[in-house]
Each structure stands twice: as structure tokens, then as C-alpha cells.
Amino acid sequence: MNWQVIQAIAIKDIRQITSNMQVWLAMVIIPIVFCIVLPLAIILASKYGGMNGSTEDMIRKLIEKLPAGSMNLSAQTDVNAQIIYFAINYMLLPLFLMLPIITSSVISANSFVGEKERRTLESLLLAPIRIKDLFLGKILASFIPSYTVTLGGFILLGIVVDTMTYTMFEGLLFPSMNWIIAIVWLVPAFTLVSILLNAIISARVKTFQAAQQMSGLIVLPVIMLVISQMTGLMLISPLILVGIGGVLILLCFALLPQIARMNSRSLLFEKQIH
Amino acid sequence: MTAAFIQVDDVHKSFDGRPVLNGMSFTVEEGAIVGLLGPNGCGKTTMIRLLNGVIEQNSGSMSVAGMNPLADGDDIRRISGIVTEGAGLYHDMSAVDNLKFFSKLYQVKDKSRVRELLELFDLTEHANKPAGTFSTGMKKRLALAKALLHKPKLLFLDEPTNGLDPEGIRLVMKSLLELNERDGTTIFLCSHVLHQIETVCSTYIFMDKGRTIVTGTRSMIENRYMKSVELVVETGMLPAGDRYAGYPVRKEGLNRLRFSLPGKDAIPALLRQILADNWVHSAEIVNRDLESLYFEVRKEHA
């Protein structure tokens, strides 16, 4: 492993990413939607009675399903506070996971397929660098900005939620244990799976658009998680989040042999360069 | 006898069942400037990629500086530089950032090397401009600077003069000659624009349909394939008919006669005879340029 090469590729890529308008848009708009607009809408709707009776009923039924350990929730007598508590800690969390998935997909698709589109992959493959170092550099270049954006979004979300709910809860509502596990364990795992899948997809497709379309599949598990919260099928708990993260890390290991197969320089060259 | 710097023996390569190389064989001596010549699509670029170990041959063997491109690809790429047809530069990055990035990939420790090369290729005042705004000639020069960052022992150039204006071609060719003379760099260049490279190459490999048809120095190829000599003589002599001294002759213009001779050996006697009759200011063989030779070779191997 040549750290100088990995670092050079990662820094070059991060510079290119931050100068790409399409990537910037994804990195700015998505956190605004998921970390400002969405929580604000939830809190304001609950506070000022924007929710209709059926939504309230649905959420109340879900709250009843929560394990007895959710003392914080049952401690809230105000139904609006209960709804906000539930929405922020259970429903918003899976939606927030879309943030690292979308940003890492946009960045990694740009990073891997971008070299082909710019016709610079040939220069990289003709340089005396190991393909493993090239991949590591690119994975790092996708992981660092994606995680930074997500972390920024996490902090932004915390500021919005706690500012709006401090008086209501007489303390900090955010971050709960679920959120802490999400940011330190689940987000890195989701980001890594998303990057590795994109690396595999990018090696098979020819354009940035095609890579992005294919990588759309990665959001499926998150959608399932959102649905399971709404229906109360599997309400998230620290244990479930640790479990999901574990499964994702195992998935990363399962993807590694596929990545290793792509490590053949000649295969990469013949498939990608004409 | 010392081993050749590059040795290629009966190399075959096909892509998806479509044969591209059908038995390439040649050798290149260290310090030579070799021209790999052939029509578009005959496999020149594939040959360069094989020698760099970035693709694998189906059969045959190769060695570069005593190393096997398949097993020692990184070691070969460490001692070789390459200018590809597409230049392979990052258009959104400045010239200096492109060179700094590739310096890291090629483990160049000398910090002054980037400035030195920008100066050598007349790019200093454009150092901070994005490479995408450069003209084709400037991009080619920057690509050449990139290829020379690590002072390679071997330089591969794929169509180095494509898209260059006459001044650009002269600058590139001059740089290559200087590099070869000063550092003894072995230069392997492929092109289909023959007259542009004939001033620099010491030896040639002619290829067609994926195979070598002839290799050797210019004079070796000339002696083997130049069946007749077309000699244009600037003289005041006026031949009586369409033959003179036993050779066919025709007027090419004012005071210019074109003789068709069986070989170079016939030139001294012919000139002596013309001089006995009239003045002679110049005599030039006009069918010895690389392009004429190339067509002669291809005709014979068709």
C-alpha cells in the first residue's frame, strides 16, 4: 500500500468534487431538505396542530407499540410532544440515512465514472500505481466528503430540533441513543456500502448518469426501514441499529471479492478504454 | 551481443475474438529512436499498451529492459513515460496541478522538476491556466512534460504530432532529439503521418494488419525495397529524346530533368556524362522519402 499515491488520488478527487456544480447541489440541497425543512415541518405541524386526526391516531397507535423502555416518551403527557418525540427519534432517522446514501452515490459515481468520461483513466492505469491504491484513494475521496456532509447535516438537525423543542422538553431532545448510534456506526456503514456498490456499478457502466441510476437501488433498504416505522412493523432501537450496521459491514466484506476481481488492470483497461 | 532493450516475439492479441495483432516480432536497441509505422487501426496503440503491461497478450512473449510486462508492469511503467493520443490530462486542473499530481503518482522527489519542464515546453506563462483551455499543441506539450516528469529511460509516444501545427511539430521533434542525445532515452513512437517523424527516427518497424512487415534502419529498408531511383537533376542539358545515357528521362520544369535509374550505383556515371555535356547545379533522389518507402514496402507485402 502506497500512502502517498492514495493520498494524492484522494486529494485530487476531493478538489474535483468540490469544483463540480452537480455534486455541490447534491451536497447543499439534500442536507437542507433532510436536516432543516423536514424536521421544521414536523415540529411546526405538531406544535401548531397541522396534523389531522387520523395521523395523530396512527402515531398514537405506534407509540403504544414502543417497548416499555421508552420512558422518555411515556413521560410526556402532552400528545404533541409525544408526536414530536416519535417523529424525530423514529421516523426521521431512516429518512436521514438517505443523506449519506445520496451524497456518497453522487460523489462516488462522479469519482469512478468521471475518470472514464474525462478520458483520464488511461493515464492512471498507465502510471506505476497499484489498482488497489487507486481504489482506496477513490473510496477515501468519496467517504470523507460524504461523511463530512452527513455530519454537518447531523449538527444542523440537532440545532434545528433542540432550538425548536427545548422549552417543550425542558432539555435536549436530540441526539438520542438511536441518533448517536446512527452517526457513529450506521452512517459510516451505509456510506461504505454505497461507495463499494457504486465502484462495482461504475466499472460496468459507461456514463455518470447510468451509474447514478443503478445506484438508486441502494436506497431500497432505507425505504423499507421508513415503511417499517410507519407501520410499526419493526420500530428502531439501539440494538436494531447496531444489527443493521453489522449486516452492512458484512455486506462490505461480501463485496470485497467482487472489487478484488476488478483489481485486474488488464480487465479494467480492456473494458473501459477504447 | 547485448540483449535488446525491447524484445517482442510472435505476439498475438485479439479483443472479443477480433484479432488485432497477428504475430508481431521486433527488437529495439537501447538509446534508439524507433518509429512504429502503419495505417490507422493496424494495432500500433495495442502494441504500446502491451509493452506497458496494461493489457495481456493471447500468445507470444515480450520483454522491456529485461522485464516481463505482464509480471513486472509497475517496474516497467516506473522507467517509462507515455504520451497517449488523448493526452490524458485533467482539463479542470491547471497545467502545474496536473504535473504536481502526476509527480506524486510517479514518486518524483525533485520539487523543481515541474517548473523545469514547464519552461522546457514553453508553458511557464500558462502554468496556472486550466489544461482544458489549452490548444491541442499546448496539451500535447503538457502531456510530454507529464511523461518526462520521472526522467524515464524509455518514452512511448502514440501519434505525438496529431493536431499540431508545423511549429508545434518542430518543437516536439526537437525536444525528442535533444532528449535522446542528452539522456540516451530510448524513444518508441508510432504514427501514420510519416513525413513528420522521418527526421528523428533511427530505425523503423513497418506494420500492417497486426503484424510486422519489415524492421531496420532507413538505409537497410531503402536497399531492400527501393527498386528504382528517381533522380531530379538541375542542369542546362537538353536531352534529344525520352532517353539519355540509356535511362528514361522527362522534363520536370525549367532546367529540371527527372531520370529513372535501376539503382543508386548508376548515379555517378550519369552525372559525369551530363557534366561532360553541360552544367549541373543539383541532383536529388526524390523517391526515398519515408512515405514512398512505406508504400513500396506495403506493395510488396500486400
From TrEMBL, chain A:
This is ABC transporter permease subunit. The keyword Transmembrane applies. Signal peptide: none annotated. Keywords: Membrane, Transmembrane, Transmembrane helix. It comes from the Bacteria. The chain crosses the membrane at residues 21-45, 83-113, 134-159, 179-201, 213-230, 236-256.
TrEMBL record, chain B:
SUPFAM superfamilies: P-loop containing nucleoside triphosphate hydrolases. Gene3D superfamilies: P-loop containing nucleotide triphosphate hydrolases (3.40.50.300). Keywords: ATP-binding, Nucleotide-binding, Transport. Residues 6-234 form the ABC transporter domain. One of its GO terms (molecular function) is ATP binding. PROSITE patterns: ABC_TRANSPORTER_2. Belongs to the ABC transporter superfamily. This is ATP-binding cassette domain-containing protein. The lineage of its organism: Bacteria, Bacillati, Bacillota, Bacilli, Bacillales.
